């Protein structure tokens, strides 16, 4: 059974509906199982789910220039986060990986080892 992070957004609260959340949870459960068997180093980097405050902060970034409460609307309208996106990120909010500048600079990487040969 898939367990939800206690601090993550509630799976039954709007705008995440239970059918969307349950499909996302099933998908992540399958991915977690695969990672545990085939790539535990990737599974170890998965972050816990995003909390409601994280979604609110992201929404604010997306709506930069939107009017404050009580102000008249200008040219920017609020763009809601899609429920599917909220559901996926409420389970795992990305990865926690160390940045390796040498990868960006292509240092020590040949075409053969970059292709996994």
Structure in a nutshell:
The chain has six helices and no strands. The protein has 117 residues and is mostly helical.
What does this structure look like?
- This protein is mostly helical and 117 residues long.
- The chain has helices spanning 18-38, 40-43, 52-62, 83-91, 101-104, 111-114.
- It is built from six helices and no strands.
- The protein has a domain at 23-62 and 82-94.
- Mean pLDDT is 74; it is low at 1-7, 9-14 and 113-117.
- Helix 1 (18-38) packs across helix 4.
How would you describe this structure in keywords?
45% helix; mainly alpha; disordered N terminus; flat; 117 residues
Walk me through the topology:
Elements: H1 18-38, H2 40-43, H3 52-62, H4 83-91, H5 101-104, H6 111-114
Helix pairs in contact: 1-4
Biggest sheet overview: none
Number of helical stretches of at least 4 residues: 6
- Estimate what percentage of residues fall within beta strands: under 5%
List the secondary-structure elements in sequence, H or E: HHHHHH
**Distance from first to last alpha carbon:** 37 Å
